[in-house]
Amino acid sequence: MKTNRRYDIDALRVLAFGILILYHCGMLFVPGWGWHIKSSYQVEALPSIMQFFNAWRMPLLFLVSGAAIALANPQERLVDFVSSRTFRLLFPLLMAMIFTVPLQAYVQAVANGSIEAGLLRFVVNYFTFQPWPQGAFDGSDVGFTWNHLWYLPYLFVYTLLLVGLLKLKTMLRLTLNSLSVSTVSFISAIFLLYIVALKLWVKPHFPETHALYNDWYAHPYYFGFFIFGYLLGRPACNNVWHKLAGSRWALLAVALSSFAIWLWLKQCNGLQVNLWLFAPAAGELQLSGASYMLCATNIKMIVHAFYSLSMIAAILAFGFQYLNKPDSAIARYSQAIFPWYILHQTLIVLLAYWLVPLKLGVIAEAVLVISGTFIGCYLVCRYIIMPLPFLHNAFGIFAKR
């Protein structure tokens, strides 16, 4: 398959996974947010920092994944593409679910007192699908888990759906001609309304499960970013990227301003806004037709959606401007970052399990967890995975075509 190389897409993929690793390290210290294991030190200011990244970190990853697929020109050989993607996504997922993810489940169950320590006994029960105490670990009701690797099966399903759309496009003999900046801007506005609708009317009823099934908010949400990324990665949108890069500072200013507004609204608990259809020239305000009440929660969701898209647009713009170069140092790690993604959360959970009881203080604990995770990922990747070719595919390293 012919591939159009975009070094900024490679670099953004590395940065997105890097942010994901730091984000998971931070989950130890966020008060009120459940996670596999928690530190005894909870940092009150951390939720706002985490929410700054949480609004766009996974949407960006799915968008970049869609763009990368577009650059690979899958429509040229769909059967080969599906076969390749199936192996590249599901084989590392299966290997991780067998060899690395169970350690997270074991540590979580021991840490919360659901089971007694004993890794061998846990592994035997885990792979024979024995029942677990309620809440023993994330996924214990099913009996096994993929934890942070949920991105892989979701991406696999979205890829199959995309292939179906491409096949339908071929059957209908549809073509995607060059899109003007104004057309893409219009599509972006429609996409914003789509995201707002999901946040307002779907998310409250279907919280994310990451279990693949019954995830009725997450699927249309992430699949939307995936398809939008595919559209941006097509040659028809090549002219858009230069315009985007030229507006990078304005986009960043809009994104940061919208995040500041969202934080302000978050502090205005109970705020309500009355929208009157009209007010008569004299006398008290009266209604004609209906009165609309938008509570602060709904306003925050709208602003949050706008922040997500504007921040992603700014990131794409800066990436295209500064990272789309053959000598991009970040892009060189595009293959190595996948083993880091597979390994990092297991290392975080293990480090936290050993360090939390020592009561070293929040700074020392955070530094040790973060540095230990990054150093551990580097050492395992550099001195175990890379020198042993038979491990490459199991950790998502494949020869580039």
UniProtKB/TrEMBL annotation:
<feature type="transmembrane region" description="Helical">
    <location>
        <begin position="12"/>
        <end position="35"/>
    </location>
</feature>
<dbReference type="GO" id="GO:0016747">
    <property type="term" value="F:acyltransferase activity, transferring groups other than amino-acyl groups"/>
</dbReference>
<dbReference type="Pfam" id="PF01757">
    <property type="entry name" value="Acyl_transf_3"/>
</dbReference>
<protein>
    <submittedName>
        <fullName>Acyltransferase family protein</fullName>
    </submittedName>
</protein>
<keyword id="KW-0808">Transferase</keyword>
<feature type="transmembrane region" description="Helical">
    <location>
        <begin position="148"/>
        <end position="166"/>
    </location>
</feature>
<feature type="transmembrane region" description="Helical">
    <location>
        <begin position="86"/>
        <end position="107"/>
    </location>
</feature>
<feature type="transmembrane region" description="Helical">
    <location>
        <begin position="301"/>
        <end position="324"/>
    </location>
</feature>
<feature type="transmembrane region" description="Helical">
    <location>
        <begin position="178"/>
        <end position="201"/>
    </location>
</feature>
<feature type="transmembrane region" description="Helical">
    <location>
        <begin position="336"/>
        <end position="356"/>
    </location>
</feature>
<feature type="domain" description="Acyltransferase 3">
    <location>
        <begin position="7"/>
        <end position="381"/>
    </location>
</feature>
<keyword id="KW-0012">Acyltransferase</keyword>
<feature type="transmembrane region" description="Helical">
    <location>
        <begin position="221"/>
        <end position="237"/>
    </location>
</feature>
<keyword id="KW-1133">Transmembrane helix</keyword>
<dbReference type="InterPro" id="IPR050623">
    <property type="entry name" value="Glucan_succinyl_AcylTrfase"/>
</dbReference>
<keyword id="KW-0812">Transmembrane</keyword>
<feature type="transmembrane region" description="Helical">
    <location>
        <begin position="362"/>
        <end position="385"/>
    </location>
</feature>
<feature type="transmembrane region" description="Helical">
    <location>
        <begin position="55"/>
        <end position="74"/>
    </location>
</feature>
<dbReference type="InterPro" id="IPR002656">
    <property type="entry name" value="Acyl_transf_3_dom"/>
</dbReference>
<keyword id="KW-0472">Membrane</keyword>
<feature type="transmembrane region" description="Helical">
    <location>
        <begin position="249"/>
        <end position="265"/>
    </location>
</feature>
